[in-house]
Design goal:
Oligomer: single chain
Mean pLDDT: 88
Shape: extended
Distance between the termini: 15 Å
Low-confidence stretches: none
Number of helices: 4
Number of strands: 0
Structural class: mainly alpha
Helix content: 55-70%
Radius of gyration: 17 Å
Length: 89
């Protein structure tokens, strides 16, 4: 699978920075003190929580959705309209 290597829109990046606000220096220090493995573990946990939340939301919107269609909807919501090859064929 190839990854999209387009540069982010600078205006969109700035809007996101304004929306998120300045990082808390204490939080930055906590993250810097963690090992790379621990940071990766936490990011993975957050990603899986987002997947399950999105899956539950989609099931709530359409309780009769097939497992295959549910997977497609979750991937679209999490990753945008471009699906990996073979997912939507």
């Amino acid at each position: 699978m190839t990854q999209n290597r387009e540069k982010p829109d600078p205006e969109e990046v700035e809007r996101l920075r304004r929306r998120l606000g300045a990082p808390d220096p204490r939080q930055v220090e906590i993250w810097r003190a963690m090992s790379g493995a621990r940071r990766l573990e936490l990011v993975g946990q957050a990603y899986h929580l987002a997947l399950e939340t999105t899956r539950a939301s989609e099931r709530g919107l359409d309780p009769g959705v097939s497992p295959e269609e549910l997977d497609r909807r979750v991937i679209r919501r999490m990753h945008g309209d471009v699906l990996p090859r073979g997912i939507d064929e």
